[in-house]
């Protein structure tokens, strides 16, 4: 089949696979974009020429969060099972995100105490229970471990998805396509719509407010349901990747700020769907190599630790807001990357993984059906009409894989 073609025809819906390792690998790409964005905004590199390169390369790195949100919706719908209860779903999500968040919450408070930074008790409690994204007041939605605002958004998405999933399963393909097409347009509409919000709350409204940020999540949800039914149409992974790179370069260089988020949402969903299709069909994908899968598995932990570590080190060395000259700048960035990866690996191994095992309810084993073309380990949602006997190939094994239930964290 031509690489630009996509998944199986509508008459032969695809049986989703339980594992999509390429999407795990892509989580690392999203985390790296956010890391680069923070390197640029913190001014770690002081050398003008080097700083200009970093600023250009990661000017849109904040959209890594957008990538995570879209990916989260896609994977959660793809991996959903009809035997899941709402309570079991919510319990798994809490088990995935909250323990690691609590560890970083305690660490951030310890750092604040070390530097004698004042901490509002209400803000701390609000952050602990991941309610901060609902509070538009400065110093509230970005508080304690500042990156945890996105987890606050994810919790809202998780609350909504099990309630909406029965409607999603019954939705007609045209309605799902309408969601995919409408989201970039609604993102564009946010810019004139923010005029209705007080000026001091406009950043919060467009960048943090959970119902607004859920647009990207629902885009991923709709795309996953279309692919689950074999109705998705989009480019293959090589072309989708090329389109993403081209979109990134054009958006960073020439596109106004109010337009690039809409453009990148399209580029992201094309790459995510194409990578998932490559896994299902057993086609080549650079994102499911062992190193990429491991990096994706620790990406949530990496995301949680990286800002707190960088700010703390820069404050301790006296380089906060100053940056490093010469080749010290790139060397420090590389050091931050490796040190954060090491901490992320420990957090993933010592907190995230054991707490998931301890707190997550076990799913009942799925009994294979005669003629089920997806195989006994498909682990996907209940078969749609026409699934029986589907000839969609299973993905090739690709080394260590997690359960692929993401968060910004997770999809991160």
UniProtKB/TrEMBL annotation:
<dbReference type="Pfam" id="PF01757">
    <property type="entry name" value="Acyl_transf_3"/>
</dbReference>
<dbReference type="GO" id="GO:0016746">
    <property type="term" value="F:acyltransferase activity"/>
</dbReference>
<keyword id="KW-0808">Transferase</keyword>
<feature type="transmembrane region" description="Helical">
    <location>
        <begin position="260"/>
        <end position="280"/>
    </location>
</feature>
<feature type="transmembrane region" description="Helical">
    <location>
        <begin position="174"/>
        <end position="191"/>
    </location>
</feature>
<feature type="domain" description="Acyltransferase 3">
    <location>
        <begin position="22"/>
        <end position="344"/>
    </location>
</feature>
<dbReference type="InterPro" id="IPR002656">
    <property type="entry name" value="Acyl_transf_3_dom"/>
</dbReference>
<keyword id="KW-0812">Transmembrane</keyword>
<keyword id="KW-0472">Membrane</keyword>
<feature type="transmembrane region" description="Helical">
    <location>
        <begin position="326"/>
        <end position="347"/>
    </location>
</feature>
<protein>
    <submittedName>
        <fullName>Acyltransferase</fullName>
        <ecNumber>2.3.-.-</ecNumber>
    </submittedName>
</protein>
<keyword id="KW-0012">Acyltransferase</keyword>
<feature type="transmembrane region" description="Helical">
    <location>
        <begin position="98"/>
        <end position="116"/>
    </location>
</feature>
<feature type="transmembrane region" description="Helical">
    <location>
        <begin position="58"/>
        <end position="78"/>
    </location>
</feature>
<feature type="transmembrane region" description="Helical">
    <location>
        <begin position="292"/>
        <end position="314"/>
    </location>
</feature>
<feature type="transmembrane region" description="Helical">
    <location>
        <begin position="147"/>
        <end position="167"/>
    </location>
</feature>
<feature type="region of interest" description="Disordered">
    <location>
        <begin position="361"/>
        <end position="412"/>
    </location>
</feature>
<feature type="compositionally biased region" description="Basic and acidic residues">
    <location>
        <begin position="401"/>
        <end position="412"/>
    </location>
</feature>
<dbReference type="InterPro" id="IPR050879">
    <property type="entry name" value="Acyltransferase_3"/>
</dbReference>
<keyword id="KW-1133">Transmembrane helix</keyword>
<feature type="transmembrane region" description="Helical">
    <location>
        <begin position="28"/>
        <end position="46"/>
    </location>
</feature>
């Amino acid at each position: 089949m031509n690489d630009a073609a996509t998944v199986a025809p509508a008459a032969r819906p695809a049986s989703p696979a339980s594992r999509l390792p390429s999407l795990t690998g892509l989580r690392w790409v999203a985390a790296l974009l956010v890391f680069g964005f923070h390197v640029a905004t913190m001014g770690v590199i002081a050398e003008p020429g080097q700083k200009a390169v970093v600023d250009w390369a990661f000017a849109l790195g904040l959209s890594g969060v957008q990538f995570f949100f879209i990916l989260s919706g896609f994977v959660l719908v793809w991996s959903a099972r009809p035997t899941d209860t709402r309570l079991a779903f919510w319990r798994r999500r809490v088990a995935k995100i909250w323990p690691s968040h609590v560890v970083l919450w305690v660490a951030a408070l310890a750092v604040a105490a070390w530097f004698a930074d004042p901490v509002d008790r209400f803000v701390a409690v609000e952050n602990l229970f991941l309610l901060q994204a609902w509070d538009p007041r400065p110093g509230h939605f970005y508080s304690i471990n500042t990156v945890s605002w996105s987890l606050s958004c994810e919790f809202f998405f998780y609350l909504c998805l099990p309630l909406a999933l029965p409607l999603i399963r019954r939705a007609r393909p045209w309605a799902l396509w309408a969601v995919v097409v409408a989201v970039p347009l609604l993102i564009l509409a946010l810019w004139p719509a923010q005029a209705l919000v007080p000026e001091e709350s406009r950043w919060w409204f467009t960048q943090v407010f959970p119902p607004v940020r859920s647009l990207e999540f629902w885009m991923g949800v709709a795309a996953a349901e279309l692919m689950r039914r074999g109705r998705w149409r989009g480019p293959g992974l090589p072309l989708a990747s090329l389109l993403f790179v081209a979109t990134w370069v054009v958006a960073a260089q020439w596109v106004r700020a109010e337009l690039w988020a809409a453009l990148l949402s399209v580029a992201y969903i094309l790459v995510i769907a194409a990578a998932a299709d490559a896994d299902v069909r057993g086609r080549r994908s650079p994102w499911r190599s062992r190193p990429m899968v491991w990096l994706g598995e620790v990406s949530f932990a990496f995301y949680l630790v990286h800002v707190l570590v960088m700010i703390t080190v820069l404050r301790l060395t006296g380089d906060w807001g100053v940056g490093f000259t010469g080749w010290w700048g790139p060397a420090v960035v590389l050091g931050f990357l490796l040190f954060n990866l090491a901490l992320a690996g420990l957090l993933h191994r010592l907190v995230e993984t054991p707490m998931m095992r301890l707190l997550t309810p076990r799913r009942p084993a799925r009994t294979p059906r005669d003629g089920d073309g997806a195989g006994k380990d498909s682990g996907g949602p209940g078969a749609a009409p026409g699934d029986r006997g589907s000839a969609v190939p299973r993905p090739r094994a690709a080394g260590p894989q997690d359960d692929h239930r993401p968060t910004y964290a997770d999809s991160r």
